[in-house]
Write a structure and sequence with these properties.
By secondary structure, this protein is an alpha/beta fold. The strands form 2 sheets. Strands 1-7-6-5-4-2-3 form a 7-stranded mixed sheet, with helices on both faces. Strand 4, helix 7 and strand 5 form a beta-alpha-beta unit. It is globular. The relative contact order is 0.14. Bound molecules: pyridoxal-5'-phosphate. Pyridoxal-5'-phosphate binds next to helix 4.
């Protein structure tokens, strides 16, 4: 009996997986090459900055002269091609990092523009699209958005019209997140930024880089972005960072972020790193390979479920610029069974059964599967979906490719076991 069979996968399902892997061999090789490129990029940043054993132990209290923290920020900046970076455990999550970047770089009377449609859910309250205490709207910072065109292209006319003398900052989300729109490649972001600069040269261009890090050879700084922003419990934390976020970009933008994050006058010079640095460094070092595993797993899932006739987005053969995969399962029974399989494949809480629940802020019940070492981590294999048409499972992450492969096969096994395929 082989190992998959021992782990509960029938020969039929295992064979489907094997066929997909054969079809994807060349694609996987390209992703291995991408991982190699990015691994060396990270390693060279470590070497250039002479990361040493002393960098791995943190500070307490104010965190003055925290060499490890300061070097880590240089390593991030060099890897991403930026002048400076803030990489902090005190940044609570991706939303917090984005809120800091936005608030730090706008002033009352300014306007923020999103030229790629509605931003990620949690930013609605940050900006004040949905009224919320402390939003930027309360500080007289206004907001405008321009939808992408039907075919996913930029509405250049609309963007040109939307830019005015108050436009101070443009926010561009790289990943589709959980919306129905394409994820933007660094190349497309470059076109968009150069157009925006041709209309107004001094506007600050910020890219929400969540889920996008290390999915290409370049990061959006190479596309001309002034700031890129992300979460450490996604790609760049490599599954090891226990919490935190980053902002990288032009020094004057990052300096403004630092005084917003801590306090005017103190900036980046305070903020004890406690005992997180070793995991930040090691996680960033691992991140290119971990992200590649997640990419391969997403492509594997798209191929297996796509061949069974389910609508998947992106398609297995599509280029990818983030790690999110959706699979339309077309019934609540299938969505629930799929999530049960992902949960049962987890290294932590594999014995727990996920059930749909009424999540605050959502109109329909949502089911989630996650059994992660870091709570809420979405670079670890995790899955969720609202119980409504088309019953799409959104899944992402996976620290190792064999684990994602097994999770997908177990999810499919659950569908077979319940005669749902
Ligand atoms: C995850 C994510 C965020 C921030 O979410 P947090 O849960 O606060 O870390 C913002 N934008 C996008 C596109 C994301 O994927």
């Amino acid at each position: 009996m082989d190992q998959l069979e021992k782990a509960g996968i029938s020969p039929k399902v295992a064979r489907l997986g094997e066929e997909s892997e054969k079809r994807l061999a060349e694609r996987f090789l390209k992703i291995d090459k991408l991982a190699e490129f990015n691994q060396l990029k990270v390693l060279m940043a470590f070497k250039k900055n002479r990361v040493s054993a002393e960098c791995l132990s943190g500070t307490t209290g104010y965190g003055y002269n925290d060499m490890g923290r300061d070097k880590l920020e240089k390593v991030y900046a060099d890897t991403f091609g930026a002048e400076a970076a803030l990489v902090r455990g005190q940044i609570a999550c991706g939303t917090h990092a984005l809120a800091v970047a936005l608030a730090a770089n706008t002033r009352p009377g300014d306007e923020i523009l999103s030229p790629v449609g509605r931003p990620y859910d949690t930013l609605e309250e940050v900006i004040g699209i949905r009224p919320s205490t402390g939003s930027l709207a309360e500080y007289n910072i206004s907001y405008r958005e321009v939808e992408l065109l039907e075919d996913g292209s930029f509405d250049y006319d609309g963007i040109k019209k939307a830019i005015n003398e108050r436009t101070r900052l443009v926010t561009i989300q790289r990943s589709r997140g959980y919306a129905i729109r394409p994820t933007l490649s660094v190349e497309r972001i470059a076109e968009l930024i150069s157009f925006i600069r041709s209309v107004k040269s001094d506007v600050i261009c910020m890219v929400d880089n969540c889920y996008g890090e290390f999915t290409q050879e370049d990061e959006p700084i190479a596309a001309g972005a002034d700031m890129i922003v992300g979460s450490l419990i996604k790609n760049p934390g490599g599954g090891l960072a226990p919490s935190g976020g980053y902002i990288a970009g032009r020094k004057e933008c990052i300096d403004r972020c630092a005084v917003r994050l801590t306090s005017p006058g103190l900036g980046a010079e305070v903020g004890a790193s406690l005992n997180m640095l070793k995991d930040f460094y090691q996680g960033f070092f691992m991140a290119p390979v971990v992200t590649a595993a997640a990419l391969k797993g997403a492509i594997f899932a798209a191929d297996v479920f796509g061949r069974l006739g389910f609508r998947v987005d992106p398609l297995a053969e599509d280029e990818r610029y983030d790690i999110i995969q959706s699979i339309e399962l077309e019934s609540s029974e299938r969505l629930i069974a799929f999530c049960e399989g992902i949960q049962e494949a987890a290294p932590v809480d594999s014995h727990v059964k996920p059930v749909p629940w009424d999540m605050p802020g959502y109109a329909d019940p949502v089911i989630m599967a996650a059994g992660a070492f870091i709570s809420g981590s979405s670079i670890e294999l995790s899955c969720d979906g609202p119980l409504r048409e088309p019953y799409a499972a959104y899944f992402q992450g996976g620290l190792t490719y064999p684990h994602v492969k097994y999770g997908i096969l177990l999810a499919l096994q659950k569908l077979y076991d319940a005669s749902l395929v």
